[in-house]
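Deliverable D4.2, example record:
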Amino acid sequence: MREYQLYLADILEYARSTQKLISGASYDEFEADERTYKAVTYNIQIIGEAVLNIPQDVKQRYPEVEWEDIGRARNLIAHGYYKVKREIIWKIAQNDVPALQTQIERIIELEKLSESQSFIEQSNSTASSAKSIYPQQLERAATIIPIARRLLEAGRTSNSIATTQQIEQGVEELEIEDYQLRFEAQTKTLLITTKDKRGILIRAKLEERTETLDLATKLTPKDLNKWLTIEQQLNKSESRKNVAGQLLVQQSGYQDSSGSPSSIQSDVPTICALDPIQRTLAAAICPTAMQLFQAIRNNQQKQQLGSGIEVAAAGSYQVRLDPQIDTFSILAQDGRGEIVRAQASTGKILHANNINGEDIEHWENISNLITQQQLPLVD
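Output generated by the structure prediction step:
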């Protein structure tokens, strides 16, 4: 029996061939070129045939791929070829095939990974394969997963911001805003999907103290900002529960074995200087800020303050270097003040607070401009 990996390779090969055949061509040129039309149609049919031979368990691991639609396209071409218009073939080749190629490339990489391969740790507990997930997607998922885990746990209790429901034995679901969380206890698998067309965003395995990430895709800075807002809602909700519990203890006059009034200790994490999520976000934007500061310095657009402190404006932010105490800071000029402070010589994060998704999006844009050697405008 032929290995399914070979069918994946076939899909990739014929997808790439299709891209080459129509590269640089207009629809009018494609419509007039009988040879190219027949070659592209044949390629799409082969892709569909290969998809039909992919085992169901493999397809279930990657539900973001429209496996059934691809198979139906193959059947239509094979059995109803006289009904197929050239415009449909053109749209499939132009829109669907490139997207499928990207998905299959990633699936092949993921399938090559063995369980014995080492994974890198993100946000103190979230692990992933650096080769299979884009760094920006990995960073966003590493921030979101711990919040989603807390949300599921909180949802099992009363008066939470969302309710975890058991839809069948060992399977729980929770909906909040634009997202649906699904946790399967037997496989310890967490799926985070969105109600829009993007579908599955994150797939991870939740162990007792770690989270192993094997899929993160289509996550945007807006997603990150929404999940940070959800975390703040969780903090407020659980803080209210803690205060209510303390009031009940005070009213009951209960005392512990030491004779002192018992107090309920809250284990709710709050955003502080070294909060793991904030630290991860700071680590994502700080290198770009340092790089921008150096570029501004080279263009002599920085200011010199007392005690050797150098300051430069970068849009709605201010970056500051204090060589005497070896610190580099990022200050938001919207009232939040210092959001990041790092050791200038090593990049080690010393302080991180109030960083949000808009900050991440802003500094990602600056990073892209720097990569393109376009220095951002400064105030």
